[in-house]
Amino acid sequence: MNLQLKDQVVLLTGGSSGIGLATAQQFAREGARLFICARGEGRLREAAGSIAAETGTEVGFHACDVTRPAEIDGLRDAVMARFGRVDVLVNNAGTGIYKPFLEVTDDELVNGMALNFFAQFRVTQRIAPVMIRQGAGAIVNVAGCSGLQVLDPPFFSTCTGPAKAAEIRFTKALAAELGQHGIRVNCVAPNFVEVPERTQAWVAQMSPPGTSPEETKKQWAQRVALPGKRWCTLDEAAATIVFAASPAAGYTTGEVFVVDGGFARD
Ligand code: NDP
């Protein structure tokens, strides 16, 4: 399928690792021009360099913290200085805290909202005027299944679930408002995605005493409907984000693309 992304300018937050990096790589393979951000400049530079070397595409980057409004202004200015337009915005940077309600700290609560919902809102508020001037654009917000359904232990979701639910509601409200300008706004909600550098440590934190991280992961995957009973891969999550952002999905807006292997039953 031709996703019609050649030469489109894609701004993607959290592009230096995990789902964001895998998504940036897939956009670049489709011929899109990329601009990625994250806080850590070293990993960001490395990611931009390796994507450019692999695909020959143009990749700009800018180190910034998307929870800080002044730094988001700097991000907008940097992408405009480099490319002069933004065709696709992917709000990917985010986080997940899956611990019991009574153990969630106030910092985790506030930072979770700031990096998930507030950052998506604020980045979009700075980029939407660019798209309105262009008369076209596509926005994809990366949410998560905990925004759609309650997770059972060991993945307690009182902290991250409401933040992801806010992203989903934001997506739908924004799609209704920006549609008149030719701007599509969609959301991708993955289930647990295997991120090689950190999944093991992350699951270890949630495993009850006496249960190995491998066992916890397996128990969780039992709920997946598809054969293999496995977690989602980075490439599977990334492919859905790229499709939702592409002109090939041009008649979809306000939609939630659920990538969960049939985990959710209703
Ligand atoms: P990772 O932690 O692997 O990567 C996060 C990326 O965002 C990194 O590039 C990181 O770089 C950057 N980032 C983190 N904080 C900030 C910040 N304040 N400002 C700018 N950039 C930041 O995350 P995942 O790939 O796992 O998750 C990506 C998205 O997918 C998130 O929205 C997450 O909630 C969602 N998701 C993930 C699932 C999973 O199982 N992995 C499941 C469902 C949804 P740096 O640290 O240098 O800033």
From TrEMBL:
SUPFAM superfamilies: NAD(P)-binding Rossmann-fold domains
Presence of keyword Oxidoreductase: yes
Transmembrane segments: none
Entry keywords, A to Z: Oxidoreductase
Signal peptide annotation: none
Molecular functions per Gene Ontology: oxidoreductase activity, acting on the CH-OH group of donors, NAD or NADP as acceptor; quinone binding
Chain coiled-coil ranges: none
Keyword Oxidoreductase: yes
Lineage: superkingdom: Bacteria
Protein's GO biological process: fatty acid biosynthetic process
Similarity annotation: Belongs to the short-chain dehydrogenases/reductases (SDR) family.
Name of the protein: SDR family oxidoreductase
High-level lineage: Bacteria, Pseudomonadati, Pseudomonadota, Betaproteobacteria, Burkholderiales
